Amino acid sequence: MKSPPLIAPERLLDRLDDVLLLVGPDLRVRELLTDAARGLERGPQGRRTLLGEPLSEALATLLAPRALTLVMGQLQAQLEAPAEPIATVRGVEGAASASARAAGLTRYFDLSVQPFFGDDGATLMLGLRDVTERLRLGRALETARNAHELAVAVLRADVTPLQRFLDEASTSLALVQSLLRVPTRGQQAFREKLGRIQEEARSLRLQARALALTPIAAEAARFEVAIESLLAGATVDGDQLLPLALQLDELYAQIGTASQLAEQRGSAKPAEPTVTLRLVTQPPAPTAWTEACAARLSALVDRVSGETGHVARLSLLGLETLPDRYRRNVDYLLVQMVRNAIEHGIEIPAQRIEAGKPATGTIIVECVDRHAAGLEITVRDDGRGFDLDLIGRIAIAKGLLTAESLATTEPRTLIGLIFRQGFSTSADDSGRGLGLEFLRDLVLRMDGNVSVATKPERYTRFRIQLPALADADSAATPQRVA
């Protein structure tokens, strides 16, 4: 029997698909150990010699710029403290054009380092293994799991709030898609665009979480993280927005899948009566007060929209978690805040369309029971925000500020003036103000506090925090809302 041919020891490494090379203490390439490593010499500009070149240049065509910076920093740290082992770095992003990243063609590598010690210092054996296919299979498995989890969540969710969420999510994603497509110039414009998209993603995440649609909430959270990463960079450009489009497609796909499941669920007609079992982790069932409050606020939105021409839709989340002792006061608070949001926050349809928004505004009211940390009530709209210039002019007119002090007043301090007695911007019909003194007083009587965040032309968000066990004035008689 003929023996198989022997492989020369120096060629054994070439049977590996990994990039293996030796790096000296000066972080220059000393030796290429595998054929895959020698393949780096055949770059887009033709054949070149990597021996003696800085490692950063050798890997520039293989790794993405940020990943390369991370790798070089870790290698430098390894050389400075060779006794400390370096763990395998997994999922290092490969070099790719913006269009390739958007198309999902980026490659990924696991990086490992083995130090050797010689007379001239530490020599590192650097290994790069292509794990793109492994990650792709992992994502496919995760997608299958998410699809199963989403199907179960849709089947368990209450039909009416689920359908309302799916309708609002489709509108929100359409807005995000239009924002991504609109040409933008200048860093400030890019950051404002990303801020608006981030607000939409956050709203989507919170609503999905409230309905226990975990896969959608998780995908929206990843979208938020991607935006935050872009905002943290020194500069933002159009090419960096392309990967967001890919993540947006994933959100679209999940919303579309949930909509199809909801439609199939609605058309199903069980032959026999069924019994619905509620898990203890689900929110409490709607109470008579919850339904009455929702009907009252919906009627208010319809009436005020008809009177002002400011069209808005209302989303209510978590009202059933509100303790009995807070309901009377919170009912009055919500009526005032929702009315203010329509009258002074939401723009008329023509103005919204001109600003790149849907013609119909959105108002989201969310109540979250944080147990020992108390109760949190958030009222958010996607309207024009506060007019800080107008607030400043009124503050000067009322003697609260001087022109000199206004120039050094921080925006948060300026916004705090809206809660002052008699302070109103309604006369100009350009901002808010009416009833906010009432809001502050009633919240204080419940031993709570109120804060506000706003972005001109983007949103306004009021957050009210109430104590878990409010002994003071829980039965306070609320004032009549004018």
What is the CATH T-level topology of the largest domain?
Heat Shock Protein 90
Structural category is alpha+beta
Main sheet overview: 5 strands, antiparallel
CATH class of the largest domain: Alpha Beta
Question: What amount of the residues lies in strands?
Answer: 15-25%
Per DSSP, the total helix count is 16
**CATH superfamily placement of the largest domain:** Histidine kinase-like ATPase, C-terminal domain
Give me the Rg, rounded.
29 Å
Q: How does this model look, in words?
A:
- It is a single chain.
- By secondary structure, the protein is an alpha+beta fold.
- It is built from 16 helices and 12 strands.
- It has helices at residues 35-38, 55-58, 65-80, 98-102, 132-156, 159-181, 187-210, 214-232, 238-267, 288-308, 324-345, 349-354, 388-397, 403-406, 411-416, 436-445, and strands at 19-23, 29-32, 42-43, 46-47, 89-93, 108-118, 121-130, 312-317, 361-369, 375-381, 449-455, 459-466.
- The radius of gyration is 29 Å and the shape is elongated.
- Mean pLDDT is 76; it is low at 268-286, 427-434 and 470-482.
Helix-strand layout with pairing:
Elements: E1 19-23, E2 29-32, H1 35-38, E3 42-43, E4 46-47, H2 55-58, H3 65-80, E5 89-93, H4 98-102, E6 108-118, E7 121-130, H5 132-156, H6 159-181, H7 187-210, H8 214-232, H9 238-267, H10 288-308, E8 312-317, H11 324-345, H12 349-354, E9 361-369, E10 375-381, H13 388-397, H14 403-406, H15 411-416, H16 436-445, E11 449-455, E12 459-466
Parallel strand pairs: 8-9
Antiparallel strand pairs: 1-2, 1-7, 3-4, 5-6, 6-7, 9-10, 10-12, 11-12
Helix pairs in contact: 5-9, 6-7, 6-9, 7-8, 8-9, 10-11
